[in-house]
Amino acid sequence: MTATAARSHANADSQKAGGVAALYLAFALVAAIPYFLVVVDYPGATTAADKVGLIVGHFPSMYVMYLLTYVVFGIAVGVLALTLRERLRSDAQTTVRIATAVGLMWAVVLVASGLIFTYGMTTINDLASTDPANAVVTWRAVETVALALGGAGGELLGGLWVLLISAVVTRGDRLPRRLGWLGLVTGVVGIASVVPPLNDATVAFGLLQIVWFAWLGGILVPTTPTVLADDLSTPIGGDDVQLTETAR
């Protein structure tokens, strides 16, 4: 295998990894919404004492869900952000660099939020049996920090990342422009949720993200070996076969 072909296959593997990450993100959101709204009904718990009761009563499943929908979710966001950087960097380098930085920041705060949630729940679960009053006070502090990092006060980082990436998509030909337009709407909704009266827009942001992530994953997973834009100027000689991008 020539150096050019090796780079092409490496690029295809990277794109597929990003596609798997995008599909995971869609799946995680699909799983999280009914779990937290119906199975546990965490938003329906109006006091810290009620929330501590839910944690104690559903500790194993809540621990796993926070792990999957925050910690693993954040890691998947990081993988997808880097994948999209590789795919789109030749279209608008500056915008893509900024978008990648925002995406990685979002990934970091999601992981941090999930780790605070999971460790905090473990502490609360143990504390509730010996000192219920202190467990309630402690959970108020833990939840405030974790939710702030996780976007409960508005999806600024997530919305901005989707918006910037989608702005590049609508101006290029590396991904379907309709996907870009959907992403623009999704990003605007996410950013708007930062405004207190529009905070409930986080739900709409999540639902739109499911479609955006699933669509994006469906495009990236079937990616075949391609020549990176940076390699197009590299001469291909001998038995090399120039590969062109077939996954749009």
Could you explain how this protein is built, in words?
The chain is an all-alpha fold and 248 residues long. The chain has one domain. The protein has helices at residues 3-39, 48-57, 59-88, 93-127, 132-150, 156-171, 177-192, 201-220. Helix 2 packs across helix 5 (132-150) and helix 3 packs antiparallel against helix 4 (93-127). It is elongated, with a radius of gyration of 21 Å. It starts with a helix and ends in a 28-residue tail after the last helix.
Shape: elongated
From the alpha carbons, calculate the radius of gyration and give it in angstroms: 21 Å
Number of helices: 8
Main pleated-sheet profile: none
Strand content: under 5%
Structural class: mainly alpha
Mean pLDDT: 86
Q: What is the CA–CA distance across the termini?
A: 25 Å
The H/E string reads HHHHHHHH
Low-pLDDT stretches: 227-248
What number of domains? 1
Q: How many E-type strands?
A: 0
Helix share of residues?
A: over 70%
Record keyword descriptors for this entry:
mainly alpha; single chain; 8 helices; 248 residues
Care to give the gist of this entry?
This protein is mainly alpha-helical and 248 residues long. Helix content is 74%, strand content 0%.
Task: Describe the secondary structure blueprint for this structure.
Elements: H1 3-39, H2 48-57, H3 59-88, H4 93-127, H5 132-150, H6 156-171, H7 177-192, H8 201-220
Helix pairs in contact: 1-3, 1-8, 2-5, 3-4, 4-5, 4-6, 6-7, 7-8
